[in-house]
Design a protein that fits this description.
By secondary structure, the chain is α+β, with helices and mostly antiparallel strands. It has one domain. It has four helices and four strands; from the N terminus they run ααβαβββα. A hairpin with a 5-residue loop joins strand 3 and strand 4.
Amino acid sequence: MRVTDHAIKMMRQRLGLPKKAAQREAARAWSEGIQADALPVHLRRYCAVKEHAHKSRARLYHAHLYFFSPVGTLVTVYPLPPKYRHYLAALQGRAVAGAHTSDNHQEIH
């Protein structure tokens, strides 16, 4: 899988990943990411606008949208906008980052 220089720069900037990890992360996003067609309608519309702008296909992986060219080259990465993050819990079956957890709170009887 090929990763463009721009995609590497965006992964470093937006995900905090080192350059060497970009290839691995792109491969995971391609294989484990959720295709835009399988997303809820509001999120699918957002992806459609971005896909058209980049002439690419989107995959959602770990609260980021990865955009791949038709031949499988990673073009760019965007963080999922906050107004769409509530879909993550349903899509991934786990709590959304930043949500309140009760790990540090003990129940008093």
